[in-house]
Sequence to fold (420 residues):
Amino acid sequence: MSATLHVMSSGLKVVCDPVPGLRTLAVAVTADGGARHEDAERSGWSHLLEHMVFKGAGGRSARDLIERIEAVGGNLNAATGQERTTFTARVLADDLELALSTISDLVFRPNLDAEELEREKDVIAQEIAEAYDAPDDHVFDLTYAQAFADQPIGRPILGSNDTLAGADRGRLEAWRARLYAPERMTVSVAGAVSEDEMLALAERWFGEASSGQGADIAASVFTGGMASEKRRIEQANLVFAVPGLAARDPDVPALALLVEILGGGMASRLFQEAREARGLAYSVDAGYESFADGGLVSIFAGTAGDKAVGMAELAAAELRKLSDGVTEAELSRARAQGLAGLYMAEESLASRAERGAWQALVWGRLIPTAEIAQRLADVGLEDLRRVAGRLVNPGRAAAAAIGPGGAARAPSAFVGTLLP
Fold:
C-alpha cells in the first residue's frame, strides 16, 4: 500500500501511510512555523510555546496529559526547529484517536497558565545556560549568527532571557493562534492505520476553521563572518560553513552525496586526512541543512588549541578540492550510504511519519522512495563537480571557534584559505 496525501477544506494536510502487518503507529503533527518566523522581539517564543502546551491543555494538567499516553504504552514528544514545529507520538493501533486528540488539545487548547509560564521561563533559562556551557553546541549558534547576521534564521531557537521576558499569556496565545493555524499544519500517520479512519479523525480533531493569517518569512541571505570565544577548556570546538542549497533545489541529491564524500563517515576525505593521516582532530565531520530558500554546509572539528589553525586550513583546502572532482569509488560509496539510509528509514515508523509531513509541507506532494533512490542514482561525477563550485563560488564563508589558545585564529585561517 502507498501513502496518500489529502488537503482538507481548512487547508490542513493529512498524510496516511499504511504499513500492513503491524500493531503500532507513529504520529507526526507538524506546523509550518518555527524560530525563523519570529521577529527580534519574539525570538524564542515558538520554543517557549512548545514547552508551555505540555504544562496543561484541554482542561488536563501536565501530568494528566503524559499519563494519558503512557497509560496505554505510548510516548509523546515535540521539537521546535527553524521552519517547523513537530509533535510526535507512538502508540498501539487502537489508540490512534487518543494520540490525535491529545495533540489536538496541545496545539489548539493549551491552558497557558500565567504562573506556569513564569516557571517555564526559568526552566528555559537553564536550557539556554546549558547550551552555552556545551561548546560543541554553542559554536553552531555562533556560526549561524555569522552566516545569517541580523536575521531570524541566525538567532538561537531558544531565544534569550530578554526576549522571553516579554512573553505573557495573552501575547503567547496570539502567537499560538498564528503558529498552529490548521492551514499551516500537516497530520501524518504511519503504521497500522486505515485511510478512512485517519481522514475522519483528522477532520474531527484538527478540522478547525482557517485562521486566514499568512506564513510569510523574510528571505534569508548568507552574509558570512567570523566569531571566536576563548575558554579555559581542553579542546577547541570549530565550525566552518559555506552557503548551501534550498530544500527544493534540484541539486540537493548531489549535495547530499558530496557532503558524504567530504565528511560523512570514517572513509570520508576529512576523517582520513584530518584524523588518520595528520592527527589534527579526534572528531571531524560534515553536514548540511536546507531551508525554504537557502541552506548551509558545515564542517565541525574538535581538536587541540595548537592544531586549530591547521585544521581550519585543511577544512578549507578539502572544500576547494571538491571542485577538482571526486572518484567513481567515492561516488559509489556515498551513493550506497545514501541508499542505505533511505531504506533503513523505511523501517522506522517515526521517520516515515515525519518524512511524510515534511514532504507535504515543502513539496505539496509525497515523493515515493523509488523516486528518491533514482535521484541519487542519476547523480554523476560532473554533477558533483558543479555543485562543489556552487558552494565556494559565492565567495562567502562563516566560521566560529570556542576554546583555548590558537583556537581564536582558526576562523580567519579558514576564510583566508578558502577565499584567498
The chain has 16 helices and 13 strands. Residues 225-418 form a domain with the Cytochrome Bc1 Complex; Chain A, domain 1 fold (CATH 3.30.830.10).
